[in-house]
Amino acid sequence: MKVTDVTGDAGVKETEEESKETDGNLFKDILNIRHNELNNNKIFKDKKKTTSDYIPSKLPGRENECNDLASVLSDAFRGDIPMNIFIYGTPGTGKTSVIKRVFDEMEKFQRANKKSNVEVITKYINCREKATSEYQVVLRILEDGRLKNIASGDSGNPNAQGNKIYGDKLDGLAVEKLYEFLEKVLKRGKIALMLALDEVDAIKKNSDKDRVFYNLVRMNSDLNDDSENREEYNFNTGITIISTTNDMKFKEKLDPRTRSSLSKKDMFFERYDVPQLEKILEERVKLAFYEGVVEKSAISFAAGYVKKTYDGDVRYALNLLQISGEIAEKKGKPKVTYEEVKKGCDVLNVDTLNEWIKRLYRHQMIVLYAVADAIFKKKYKRLIDIQPDAILSGEAYESYEEKCKIIGEKPKTMRWFREYLNDLQKCELLALSESGKGIRGNTTIIGVGKYYTPKEVVEKVEKLLFGDEIQKEKEEKIEEKQKEGTEEKI
C-alpha cells in the first residue's frame, strides 16, 4: 500500500519538483525521450539507410553509369562473355554502389528467368579487405557459397553433378591448384562469373596484379575450347572482371602481355557536384528519416560543405547526414536544421580522419605518423624554405626509420616506402609534389593532406598505435606537474 501512495498525485508532483532542481537526472532524461516519442518527435525511421554500405534502388547522378555497366554485362545472358571493365574515379564517386546495384539486378533477372541456359554468378571482392595478393583473390573466389555447392557435386544444377572438386580446406594449397579448381567448377556448372575486384590497386605486388588478370583472362579460352560443348549449350562459360581503381595509370603498370590479352571497356566516374549531392541526400532522407524532419536548408548546406571541403565525396555527405540526425535526436529537437548540420561538420572532420587511419596497413600508418610528427615538431630546419609545413622525402624516410625503431618494427625498403607515400596521397592523407628551383637534385616534397593538420594526424595515429600507453603517459605528466605546483607552494 505504501508503494501505491508513492506513485500517487503527491508523489508525482514531488518527483517533478525534484527533477526541476536536479540537472542530468537519469529518469528525467529517459522520460523526456519517451515524451518526445509520444509526441511523434522521432528523427530516424531507419538509420542504417544513411550509411554508404546501404545500396538503394535509385542512385541519383549514377543512373547512366548503371545503364552502361548493365548494357555491357547483358552479353552474359545472350551466351557471350562480356568485356572486362575498368572503372576509374576518386574515392566517394559511387563506383562500388554502381557495381553492387547492377550485380543485384543481375541476380534478380537470373532468378526470374530460370529457363535460361546461362548460369550467371556475381562475386564482389574488396581487394583491400583480405585480398591483397594473387593467392587471396583466387581463394576468395573459391569461397563463394554457390561455387562451393557446385564443387561438392550436390548442387541442384543438373549440369553440376559429379565428384567433389574441392572442400572447405583450401588454405596452404599452391595457387596453381586453386586456379585448377576454379576452372573445373566453372566448367562443371556452365558458369558465367561476373567478378568485381574493387580497389584492385590494393593488391600489393605488381607481379600479383599481372598474374591475376593474365591467368583469369587466359582461363576463358581454356573453358571454351570444346566446340561440341559450345554447340550443345549455345553459350560460353567464362569470367568477366570489373575492376575499380583510383589510379589512372593502373593499366600502364601491367605487363604488355597482360594488357594485350584484355578485351576491355573503360568507365570514368567524375566527382559529384552540389545538385547531385543534394539529390542523393534528398533520396536518403526519404528512406532514413520521418517525413518533414530534415529541412531543405540543412540538405543544401550539407551538400555545399561536402563539395567544398571533401571534393564531393558522397561518403562524407551521408556520414554528415547521420551525424546531424544524431545531434538533433540527442538534443530532443523535432527537426534537423542548418544548425545541427553545422555542428555535425565539426564532428565529421574528426570521425573521418579516424576512419581513414584505421583502414591503413601498419607500415602505411607508421609512415603517416613519421611525416606528420616531423612536420608538427618542426624537426628539420633548412636555409631554403621549401614550403610551410612540409619535409623532403629523404627526411621523411629518416623519420620513418626512427619511428619503426621506437615501435619495434623492421623498416621497409625505400621502394616500399615510396609505395606507401603514393597510397597515402591517393586517400589524401598526404600531399606530394616535386621539388623545384632552389633545391639540389630531384626530390619529393611531402606535407599532410589539406583536410587535416599535422597535430590532428599525430594524435589520432598515436591513439591507434599506442592506445593506453599514451593515456597513461599523459596522466603521469599531469601528476608530475601537480606535484611540482604543490612543492612550489610549500
TrEMBL record:
The keyword Cell division applies. NCBIfam families: orc1/cdc6 family replication initiation protein. Keywords: ATP-binding, Cell cycle, Cell division, DNA replication, Nucleotide-binding. Transmembrane segments: none annotated. One of its GO terms (molecular function) is ATP binding. This is Putative Cell division control protein 6 homolog. Residues 81-273 form the AAA+ ATPase domain. Residues 380-461 form the Cdc6 C-terminal domain. SUPFAM superfamilies: P-loop containing nucleoside triphosphate hydrolases, Winged helix' DNA-binding domain. The keyword Nucleotidyltransferase does not apply. One of its GO terms (biological process) is cell division. Residues 1-21 are annotated as: Disordered. Pfam families: AAA_16, Cdc6_lid, WHD_Cdc6. Belongs to the CDC6/cdc18 family.
